[in-house]
Amino acid sequence: MRLSALLSVVTAVAVAAAETIPAAELVSSKAHIVPGPLRVTELTFRVPLDYDDPEGETITLFGRSVTGYEVPIVPSDDEDEGSMSSLPYMVYLEGGPGFGNREPQNHPLTSTALERGYQVLYLDHRGTGYSTPVSAKMLDQLDGGEDAQVEYLRLMRQDNTVRDCESVRKALTKGMADNQAKWSIFGQSYGGFVSLSYLSFHPEGLREVFLTGGLAPVGKTAEQVYESLYPRVMKRNAAYYKKFPEDVKNVRQVASYIEKQGGSVDLPAGGSLTVPRLMTIGIDFGGAGGFDSVHTTIMNLKMSLDQFGFLSRASLAPMESFTGFDTNIIYAILHEAIYCDGPGDVSGWASDRVARELNLFSWLSSNGTVSSNSSEPLLFAGENIFPFFFDTHPELIPLKGVANKLAEVDDWTHIYDIKQLAKNEVPVYAASYIDDLYVDYEYAKDTAALVKNTKTWETNAYYHSGLRTNTDAVLSALFGLRDDVMD
């Protein structure tokens, strides 16, 4: 029913697909050599905050372009350190949402892409990294209070990230023939969501698309996304406690201590550790090594209680940076909004609502109590966003009212064009993880079937973090999809 409803909404989407994106203004370009050796060019651009008002307020986008570099025997006196390579671009789109890019020399994609003849552009999404990053203090400086902050944040989703990419592409490929000016994109996780929006609205800019764990649940509501997520979260909890059965008591010991302190323990850098916040570290269950990172965190807390009778600063500090919500607030405040595709689609704190309807977590109930003697494990959440984040994370606390207003927005812009995806002509090569905790495998299969010209490589050997932890295998499979001939 939702898919057919989307198919019937064509006017707004058609207008978006036909829009003209102005070229970004290249503000600065500075090249330097890093170990590898690699030539990294740091780029800043100026683009409209709102593409419906191209002459209005602007924001800065930041990216790093990287190519291989051979040290010349005799350096040239007139070498232009800021010149750009003529190699075809591959643009890497980071996951999240809300995270900027690491340095190119530390990125798993760099060496393989360079070996295959690309230069790679690591472009920070708007609002992240160095691209006019969103923070509570920055939002507080906007005129107009919470309503202005809501309107600003509404411009930070994938549809505008696509416009940014097109604007930058036009700036960097100015003067090239149309075929030469197209570029390849590589979307990891949420970066894949952006890639599918790109295919929806500006396929003319794309030569090919690579996805890792990024086949977004096109046509699914936020509520459907979390209904599909929670059974996988329960399965991962069972696997965790099978590996670390001692943590049934250990987790309850820590939770019981927090309750005895009035339900909250102050964290060193601000905010508070509550039992619900403790149980959200299960977000790591979706990546390789995630069980061990959660166990280590629990063990640190338990050892502090056993040795001192209180939670030391050293034991609490990891809790402050476990999710990145304080340093990357878009990850929390817009997470559910990335599933809202058009008017009438309301997030409504879907993750929290579905969890309560299914009665999954005793700690989520307002009258839930924790017994240190129970033999039943306390269950961890996965990649879920809950309203209590805006009571316990210091950077999110000032944004509680804004978050509630965003959860009620019912006139979101479209982020996908179902009809365009169904007739897509751009080759898509996707790695899909069968046991992915963050992107539902069944929904990913539906999307792969929807998007024409998509080839998929499916595996249950790796988790969502496969690009980072199993780089060679994942990239070999993806480029194999591109290079191999089936007929």
Automatic annotation (TrEMBL):
Query: A GO BP term, please?
Result: proteolysis
Give the family from UniProt.
Belongs to the peptidase S33 family.
Residue spans crossing the bilayer: none
Question: Its Gene Ontology molecular function terms?
Answer: peptidase activity
**Where does the secretion signal sit in this chain?**
1-18
What are the record keywords, sorted?
A: Hydrolase, Signal
Organism this protein belongs to = Emericellopsis cladophorae
Any idea where the AB hydrolase-1 domain is? Answer: 90-239
What Gene3D superfamilies does this protein map onto?
Answer: alpha/beta hydrolase
Name of this chain's protein? AB hydrolase-1 domain-containing protein
Instruction: Tell me which SUPFAM superfamilies the record gives.
Output: alpha/beta-Hydrolases
* Pfam families xref list: Abhydrolase_1 (PF00561)
